[in-house]
Design goal:
This protein is mainly α. It has 7 helices and no strands.
Amino acid sequence: MGEPWPFDTLKIILVCVVALQGLLFALQNIVNLDAAFQAVAYTVGRAEHTVYPESIGPTVTSPWLVWTFLSLILAGEFSVAGVAGTGAWKLWSARRSDADTFNSAKGTAILGCGLAMLVWFGGFGVIAGALFNMWQTTAGGYRWRARFSMPARVLWLPCSST
């Protein structure tokens, strides 16, 4: 119908960034698979827990469970990449359409950003940070909680509004 609004173009770019973040994290974990396994084992094995030595979370040392956790992380990161990437493409395809068509194309992009929040805030902030107390080890820290999901959380509101 015409030129896309600058704000709509910005939404598309930001959703692309969320997709790229998921893809890059997943690929980095694959090319560093042993290190990724060791990082997950470190966290769920509750290494270096001297500040909070007791926990309601279990201590996991089973290699197959650690591989399961790492597989879930990779699946989540690739899902963020795929869903947010698809959402960005749908938004790009609707960028010159009327506002209602563009707004109806937002669903997949919002889902991709929601998955990013689940993976990085839910998985790393809540499960690794709170349940396994990663925040009080040398691998964690307060800045870990929000760092990876912040772009998706910031993008969630403007993308979900008209």
